[in-house]
Amino acid sequence: MSSTNVGSRLLGGPPPRRTPLARFLGPLLAIALVALGVVGIQALAASQQWTSERSWITAAVDSLDGLEPTTGVLVVVTIAGVIGLVLLLTAIAPPRRSHRYAGGDGGAELWITADALAEVAADAADRADGVLTATARATRRGVRVTAVARGAEDKGRRGDIEKTVRSAVADRLGDLPAGRLHVNVKEETA
Question: What CATH number has the domain bearing residue 174?
Answer without folding.
Answer: 3.30.70.1350
